């Protein structure tokens, strides 16, 4: 079964060493671009970019709207690495593979991870085009044992039983709210709970109603495993969901969701997401980049 695959510390290190031999950038911030949000990477200055297919050990992106490039560069004076395309469990990757880049980022010296995704809304007040700061998540695959941390624990990365209660950094969430006000986009900003489901099918109406009753505000098919692995190895995490559709909850509703519609809303809102992330990176405090391989 997928979740049983184990990746050794050496394999993460080999990929990190290869990247460090190919670029002078030593990133402090890593950004994962969700469906339709890959243009964020284009704003980095002094870019070095690598196709995933050229990076030793890296999985490949197979989903439309996920270019499959790792881009290093500067944004507002901070060194960043941006995943233009992420890996999903439904593509057939093991959870270790979907989260492989996170531990590589840790070895590169990254201290903050920004995750973005496209998601459908369950919350009654949310509209397509809204941007939701992720306050917390429900990792449905994780709750039934499909967790990237299953298998032997690598103590060099983190503890066997990591806490997840504060995994979305409160300081960064507050800062993002302030920034949204200043940018004049507070009216489309929401905060809520993201739930990961396995996908690739969108939800049935009964599943949508269940998620709604459970207090889920937005549902998608990614992010939670990345955040679990990032939190395990001590990264600070900030997450945004772009609400691309309302999840159909009524048998009277004749609309249905599709991936093209998801990408279209991504295109419409990518500029605003970019502005928010750029300002956040500008204003977040970062320790000096002296933690490469520290305690690893
Ligand atoms: O990578 P994300 O989570 O943004 O992708 C979402 C979930 C599915 O992969 C896809 C559905 O349209 O978008």
TrEMBL record:
PANTHER family: METHYLTHIOADENOSINE/PURINE NUCLEOSIDE PHOSPHORYLASE, PURINE NUCLEOSIDE PHOSPHORYLASE. Pfam families: PNP_UDP_1 (PF01048). This is Purine nucleoside phosphorylase. A purine D-ribonucleoside binds at residues 203, 245. Pathway: Purine metabolism; purine nucleoside salvage. The lineage of its organism: Eukaryota, Metazoa, Chordata, Craniata, Vertebrata. One of its GO terms (cellular component) is cytoplasm. One of its GO terms (biological process) is purine ribonucleoside salvage. SUPFAM superfamilies: Purine and uridine phosphorylases (SSF53167). Phosphate binds at residues 35, 66, 86-88, 118, 222. It catalyses: 2'-deoxyinosine + phosphate = 2-deoxy-alpha-D-ribose 1-phosphate + hypoxanthine; guanosine + phosphate = alpha-D-ribose 1-phosphate + guanine; 2'-deoxyguanosine + phosphate = 2-deoxy-alpha-D-ribose 1-phosphate + guanine; inosine + phosphate = alpha-D-ribose 1-phosphate + hypoxanthine. Homotrimer. One of its GO terms (molecular function) is guanosine phosphorylase activity. Keywords: Glycosyltransferase, Purine salvage, Transferase. Belongs to the PNP/MTAP phosphorylase family. Residues 29-281 form the Nucleoside phosphorylase domain. Catalyzes the phosphorolytic breakdown of the N-glycosidic bond in the beta-(deoxy)ribonucleoside molecules, with the formation of the corresponding free purine bases and pentose-1-phosphate. Preferentially acts on 6-oxopurine nucleosides including inosine and guanosine. The purine nucleoside phosphorylases catalyze the phosphorolytic breakdown of the N-glycosidic bond in the beta-(deoxy)ribonucleoside molecules, with the formation of the corresponding free purine bases and pentose-1-phosphate. InterPro entries: Nucleoside_phosphorylase_d, Nucleoside_phosphorylase_sf, Pur_Nuc_Pase_Ino/Guo-sp, Purine_phosphorylase, Purine_phosphorylase-2_CS. It is an enzyme of class 2 (transferase). Its EC number is 2.4.2.1.
């Amino acid at each position: 079964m997928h979740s049983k695959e184990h990746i050794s510390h050496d394999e993460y290190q080999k990929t990190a060493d290869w990247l460090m031999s190919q670029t002078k950038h030593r990133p402090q911030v890593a950004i994962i671009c969700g469906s339709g949000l890959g243009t964020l990477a284009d704003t980095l200055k002094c870019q070095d970019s690598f196709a995933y297919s050229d990076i030793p050990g890296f999985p490949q992106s197979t989903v439309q709207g996920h270019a499959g490039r790792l881009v290093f560069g500067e944004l507002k004076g901070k060194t960043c690495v941006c995943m233009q395309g992420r890996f999903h469990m439904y593509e057939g990757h093991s959870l270790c593979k979907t989260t492989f880049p996170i531990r590589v980022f840790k070895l590169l010296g990254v201290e903050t991870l920004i995750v973005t995704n496209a998601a459908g809304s369950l919350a009654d007040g949310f509209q397509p085009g809204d941007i939701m700061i992720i306050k917390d998540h429900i990792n449905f695959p994780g709750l039934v044992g499909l967790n990237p941390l299953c298998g032997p624990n690598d103590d060099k990365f983190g503890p066997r039983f990591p806490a997840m209660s504060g995994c979305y950094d409160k300081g960064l969430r507050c800062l993002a709210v302030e920034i949204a006000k200043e940018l004049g986009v507070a009216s489309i900003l929401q905060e809520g709970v993201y739930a990961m489901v396995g996908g690739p099918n969108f939800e049935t109406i009964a599943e949508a109603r269940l998620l709604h009753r459970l207090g889920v505000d937005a549902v998608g098919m990614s992010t939670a495993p990345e955040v679990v692995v990032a939190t395990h190895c001590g990264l600070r995490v900030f997450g945004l969901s772009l609400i691309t559709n309302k999840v159909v909850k009524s048998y009277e509703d004749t609309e249905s969701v599709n991936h093209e519609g998801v990408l279209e809303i991504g295109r419409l809102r990518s500029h605003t997401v970019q502005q928010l992330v750029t300002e956040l990176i500008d204003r977040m405090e970062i320790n000096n980049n002296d933690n490469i391989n520290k305690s690893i």
